[in-house]
C-alpha cells in the first residue's frame, strides 16, 4: 500500500510540474479588443429619404443626405494579466499593416506575442486608408502592379529573386509567399498629417506609452511627438523619410540612385519636444557607406546618412537618441524587417534592454 501511495504522489508531482511548465508558456490576457480612432465624417447634400433611397442598388445608388465615416485608424489591443506601466503602440511601414508585428512570414511569434510575454500591453494599428482602416473619404484608383521583385530589393532581402548571403530571412518558398501576401495598398491618397493626427488621438485615448515605428512611419512618428505629450519614448526600425530638423539647421538633400531624400524644418520650440524623450533607431544589414549602383541599397544609404545627421542634431540640442547599426554590434544579415527575421527574438531583446535602461518598462 505504501508503494502505491508513493507512486501516486510521484505521478502527481510530475503532472503538477508539467502543468506549471505548460502554464509558463501561456500568454494570459486580461482584456482585448478593437476600436477606431481619429477620422471624420463626409456628408452629401440633400435629405435622405429611407423610402426613396433605402433600397441598395450597386449601379445607381443615391447618396443624397447620407454620411460616410472614414479616415480613421484601426486598433487592436491586448492587455496582459499583470501589465507593465507603459504600453507599446506599434505602427507599420509603407504598404504594410499591423501584420508586420503579429507573426513572422515563416510562422514564428512576432513582436506582438514576444512583448506580451514580457508583460507589455500591446496596441497594433492600421493607419488611415490602409488595411483594416481602409474606409477612405478621398477616392484613389487602385492598380494591380507587378512589383514583388522591386520590394524584394528595396526591403534588402536580395537582388531580383536571389537572396543576399547569410540573410536572416527564411529561404522556405512559402515564407516568401506569405511575406508578399502581407502587403496591402493605400485605399486613398497618402496623407501623413491625417496619419499623425490619428496616432496622436490614439495616444490621447490610451495615455502615456512608447511608440514603435517601422520605415515610413518613422518620420511620421517624429511629427506625432509634436502633436501629443503622451509619447514617452520611441523605438524606430529603419526610418526612411521625413526627418525633422530645426528650420535654421535643415541639412542639404541627399541624392541617391532613384531619388532624393529631403529633411523637414520646424521652429526650434517644436523641435525641442524631440529632445525631451529617449529615442532609439535600429538599422539592419546590407546598407552601403558609399554610393552603389543598386537602388534597393542606395536609398537606405541615404536614410542612414540622414539619420546620423538627425541623431547629432537632436543630441546637440540636449536630446537622447541612440543610433544602432546592427552589423556594427556583430548582428549580421538583417533585412528591412528585423522584427520578422530569423533572429527576431534577439532583436526584441535589444529593444527590451533599451526600454529597461531608459526606465520605460
Automatic annotation (TrEMBL):
The keyword Calcium does not apply. Residues 1-21 form the signal peptide. Keywords: Hydrolase, Signal. It comes from the Bacteria. InterPro entries: AB_hydrolase_fold, Carboxylesterase_BioH. One of its GO terms (molecular function) is hydrolase activity. Gene3D superfamilies: alpha/beta hydrolase (3.40.50.1820). The keyword Hydrolase applies. PANTHER family: AB HYDROLASE-1 DOMAIN-CONTAINING PROTEIN, HYDROLASE ALPHA/BETA FOLD FAMILY. This is Alpha/beta fold hydrolase. It comes from Christiangramia antarctica.
Amino acid at each position: 500500500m505504501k508503494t502505491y501511495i508513493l507512486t501516486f504522489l510521484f505521478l502527481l508531482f510530475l503532472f503538477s510540474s508539467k502543468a506549471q511548465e505548460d502554464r509558463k508558456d501561456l500568454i494570459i490576457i486580461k482584456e482585448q479588443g478593437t476600436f477606431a480612432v481619429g477620422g471624420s465624417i463626409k456628408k452629401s447634400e440633400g435629405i435622405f429619404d429611407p423610402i426613396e433611397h433605402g433600397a441598395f442598388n450597386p449601379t445607381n445608388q443615391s447618396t443624397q443626405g447620407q454620411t460616410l465615416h472614414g479616415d480613421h485608424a484601426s486598433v487592436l489591443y491586448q492587455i496582459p494579466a499583470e501589465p507593465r506601466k507603459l504600453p507599446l503602440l506599434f505602427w507599420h511601414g509603407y504598404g504594410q499593416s499591423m501584420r508586420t508585428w503579429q507573426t513572422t512570414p515563416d510562422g514564428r511569434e512576432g513582436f506582438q506575442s514576444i512583448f506580451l510575454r514580457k508583460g507589455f500591453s500591446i496596441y497594433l494599428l492600421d493607419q488611415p486608408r490602409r488595411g483594416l482602416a481602409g474606409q477612405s473619404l478621398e477616392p484613389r484608383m487602385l492598380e494591380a502592379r507587378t512589383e514583388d521583385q522591386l520590394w524584394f530589393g528595396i526591403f534588402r532581402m536580395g537582388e531580383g529573386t536571389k537572396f543576399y548571403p547569410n540573410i536572416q530571412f527564411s529561404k522556405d518558398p512559402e515564407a516568401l509567399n506569405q511575406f508578399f501576401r502581407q502587403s496591402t495598398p493605400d485605399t486613398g491618397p497618402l496623407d501623413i498629417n491625417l496619419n499623425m493626427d490619428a496616432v496622436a488621438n490614439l495616444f490621447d485615448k490610451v495615455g502615456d506609452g512608447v511608440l514603435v515605428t517601422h520605415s515610413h512611419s518613422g518620420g511620421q512618428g517624429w511629427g506625432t511627438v509634436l502633436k501629443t505629450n503622451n509619447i514617452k519614448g520611441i523605438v524606430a526600425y529603419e526610418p526612411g523619410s521625413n526627418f525633422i530638423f530645426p528650420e535654421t539647421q535643415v541639412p542639404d538633400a541627399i541624392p541617391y540612385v532613384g531619388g532624393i531624400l529631403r529633411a523637414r524644418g520646424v521652429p526650434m520650440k517644436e523641435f525641442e519636444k524631440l529632445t525631451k524623450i529617449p529615442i532609439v533607431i535600429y538599422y539592419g544589414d546590407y546598407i552601403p557607406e558609399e554610393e552603389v549602383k543598386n537602388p534597393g541599397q542606395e536609398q537606405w544609404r541615404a536614410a542612414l546618412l540622414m539619420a546620423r545627421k538627425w541623431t547629432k542634431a537632436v543630441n546637440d540640442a540636449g536630446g537622447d537618441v541612440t543610433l544602432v547599426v546592427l552589423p556594427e554590434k556583430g548582428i549580421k544579415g538583417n533585412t528591412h524587417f528585423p522584427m520578422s527575421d530569423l533572429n527576431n527574438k534577439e532583436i526584441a531583446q535589444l529593444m527590451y534592454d533599451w526600454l529597461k535602461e531608459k526606465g520605460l518598462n
